[in-house]
Design a protein that fits this description.
The protein has 109 residues and is of the alpha+beta class. It has helices at residues 3-6, 10-22, 27-31, 38-50, 69-108; strands at residues 24-26, 54-59, 62-67. Strands 1-3-2 form a 3-stranded antiparallel beta sheet. Strand 2 (54-59) and strand 3 (62-67) form a beta hairpin. The termini are far apart.
Length: 109
C-alpha cells in the first residue's frame, strides 16, 4: 500500500499527527489515545510502517514509532510535482486569457 492510500483512513492520519507532534511514541502510548483495541491500533501501525509513513525501532519489549523521513519526502515530492504541473497549466491559461483580452480590445478600436 502506498502512503496516500494508507493515509486515506482517519485513524491512521490521527496516528501520524500524534507521532509528528510528539516525535516518538510507543505503540502503547499511541493506543491510549484511541477507543479501539491495541491489536486494532497495531494493524494501523503495520499499514503505516509498510507504507513507509512511520518507522519502528524495538527497545526491549517496546516498539517505538516515529515519522519516516524518506516516506514523507516521497509524498512531498509528489505533491510538489503536482503543484508545479498545475502552476504551469494556470500560467498557460493566464497567457491565453490575456491574449484573448488583447484581441478583443483591438477589435473594438
Amino acid at each position: 500500500m502506498n502512503a496516500f492510500a494508507a493515509l486515506a483512513d482517519d485513524t491512521r492520519r490521527e496516528i501520524v499527527r500524534l507521532v509528528a507532534k510528539n516525535g516518538e511514541l510507543t505503540s502503547t502510548e499511541i493506543s491510549q489515545n484511541f477507543r479501539m483495541s491495541p491489536p486494532a491500533i497495531s494493524q494501523h501501525l503495520k499499514v503505516l510502517k509498510e507504507a513507509k509513513v512511520l518507522s519502528m525501532k524495538k527497545e526491549a519489549q517496546k516498539r517505538i514509532y516515529k515519522l519516516n523521513d524518506s516516506g514523507i519526502e516521497e509524498m512531498e515530492d509528489w505533491l510538489r510535482d503536482i503543484r508545479d504541473l498545475w502552476a504551469k497549466r494556470l500560467d498557460k491559461l493566464e497567457k491565453y486569457v490575456l491574449k484573448i483580452k488583447k484581441e478583443k480590445s483591438r477589435d473594438k478600436k
